[in-house]
Amino acid sequence: MKQSLKQQMAQLEHQLNKGQINRRDFLRSITLLGLSLGINELLAACGLKPSPAKGFKYSQYVYDLAPMTEVTEVPAATFTPAPEVTAIPPSTPPPRQLSWYCAACGARLLNLEALKRHAVTEHSWRLPEIKRVERPTYSQFVVGRVERFDERNTVFSRTMWDTAYQGLVRAAAAKAPTDDWAAMEGRALVAGAIYVDDTAGSFHPNYYGYNGHVRETGGLYGWDDPINPIKYPVSDPQAMSERIKEVARFYGANLVGITKVDPRWVYSRYFERATGKSGVLDMPYRYAIVMGIEMNWKMINTSPGLEASAATALAYSQMAELAGSLAKYIRALGYPAIPCGNDTAQSIPLAIDAGLGELGRNGLLISPEYGPRQRLCKVFTDLPLQPDQPIDFGMQSFCETCHACAQACPANAIQWGDRTTQITSISNRKGLLRWPVDVARCYLFWQENGCDCSNCVAACPWALHSQRDWLEI
After folding, report:
1. Contacts with 55 (C-beta within 8 Å, 6 or more apart), sequence order
2. How many CB atoms lie within 10 A of CB 153?
3. How far apart (Å, rounded) are the C-alpha atoms in residues 471 and 401?
4. Could you report the per-residue pLDDT of 192-214, keeping only the tens digit for each?
5. Is cis: bond before 304, omega within 30 of 0?
6. Whole-prediction pTM value?
């Protein structure tokens, strides 16, 4: 006999309490069941505290996971906005405050421990309602013609050919801190983290990781691996999709979703930093399997430092392994598959289309599980699959009132206030009403800082997944 939703929910709760499944699998199962958990009162704790490395360390939002009770009748989703913030242009950042405060009720607290006690005693938080929707939530902000983007215009590609920007990069790099023993150890940590991608992502001698496919050079991101001439029969695309997700998680994916390829998100031209080659890009395959890899919270929270850089680098190495392994699996089934990192197409809109999350103020994918704290890779294929629907869990309204990432950005590269159609440089795309990130300014800070920065990731309230254990009851 088919179980009711209430019975299935009770069974999942029993498995969770017995330790038979973890909380992430519990949430995923609930989402698949289509249950609405609702949202009670979203506690946002956003502030600053001193940090020996850079002067400030940005605090995180804090959540209280209340025990789940009745699930058949869930109140409508509600949201308590953060205190109103006046839009401030990037050139005049807001004054920084050395205090922790609760944006849900306005209480100011002296330290994190006081904030934890306050969260537990004064507020309760339920997991957000995650709804499957017909169209991705960014659709309402597509206000003009969206042309395919030229990969030559990404900020990283511009460092190879844009002479004006190259001068700015050199000037910023000259301000980088002088090396010391701590920096040497930090760079060694990064070198070990990127090692797999650096040495095996591509076999081109100028490839050093982070970028993805380089044509005709082989490696984990290679496209020329032979396809099995015998095709595995696929009579049920939905069942095949579930198997693909299971295999992707086995190979190391923390998130995985499937979408039909929207041509708007495929680059119009490719650009290879290792070779300097560029050319017209076509994508003949119908589906994209998009995967996310969680970045270590403890390390990311050291941003803007080398440990955070190592967390990012390690995810890039894992991306190469994951995408290469899944592509090999599909080819062995007799179907074409091409693994991709940051190359070939824009990963964030594909991930949104595949139901992994929504677009945030910081220009990154915000997932219910990790916020912006994941790296994305994808595999394009013609293997018969069933696409996932996009999701809506309230991020558009949330980001309208939350400015944690903008406050945390040392380069003032993240937009304050309302969305706009104005772009900051050729590295932004036209036709979208959004919070455009000044990525050129962001990269200049990386150079001046001596390593990349993840402040906007660490500051996001949704990034705090692995730190919620102390509130789980």
Report:
1. none
2. 19
3. 24
4. 999 999 999 999 999 999 999 99
5. yes
6. 0.75
